[in-house]
Design goal:
- This protein folds into 2 domains: about 1-60, no CATH class; about 65-165, Immunoglobulin-like, CATH 2.60.40.
- It is about 10% helix and about 30% strand.
- It has 1 helix and 8 strands; from the N terminus they run αββββββββ.
- Strand 1 and strand 2 form a beta hairpin.
- This is Putative tail fiber protein gp53-like C-terminal domain-containing protein.
- Pfam families: Gp53-like_C.
- InterPro entries: Gp53-like_C (IPR054075).
């Protein structure tokens, strides 16, 4: 049993077997119609192969800058979406100034459009934060505040995910 070829140029379409097409196996050849039943399978295999190459290229270090650490970042392809994550501390004393400013591992080239902060303490008590909020996003970082169960500003540790480009 032989394998279908998975290399070549992106097929413009996928051949649809017609009711009048005889079921003919063998090596597919679009030009001659040989192996007609295997032509659409080969075309799908080529598209899958090329898509896999594109995904692998987008996630390689040379095309996607990344830092895989407790605080790090991953860019999807050159000029693509950037995911960042990290940990930090929030201090109640910073609340009047709009919260504690946390710096991203790497500045976003254009903008940050979302930050999702989460209090990561294992067991919350009356004095620990129950609500963590991030706001005032810049290319370099964001401000975060924490509020405890009593509604007072609180010190806490957080982990976050940020998205930008």
């Amino acid at each position: 049993m032989a394998n279908l070829p998975e290399t070549g140029a992106w097929p413009a379409g996928i051949y649809q077997l017609e009711t009048t097409d005889p079921v003919v196996g063998g090596p597919p050849d679009v030009g001659t119609g040989a192996g007609k039943s295997n032509i659409p399978l080969m075309q799908l295999a080529i598209r899958t192969f090329l898509n896999r190459q594109d995904i692998n290229k987008a996630l390689t270090t040379e095309n996607s800058p990344r830092l895989l650490a407790t605080s790090g970042h991953q860019q999807l392809g050159e000029g693509g979406l950037i995911f960042q994550w990290g940990r930090g501390s929030i201090y109640a004393a910073d609340a009047p100034a709009g919260g504690t400013y946390l710096t991203f591992p790497k500045a976003f080239p254009t903008a940050c459009f979302a930050v999702i902060p989460v209090d990561y303490r294992a067991a919350a008590t009356q004095t620990q934060a129950q609500y963590v909020s991030g706001g005032v996003y810049t290319k370099d970082g964001f401000r975060a505040i924490a509020v405890n169960r009593s509604g007072n500003d609180s010190d806490t540790s957080l982990t976050y995910v940020a998205l930008g480009y």
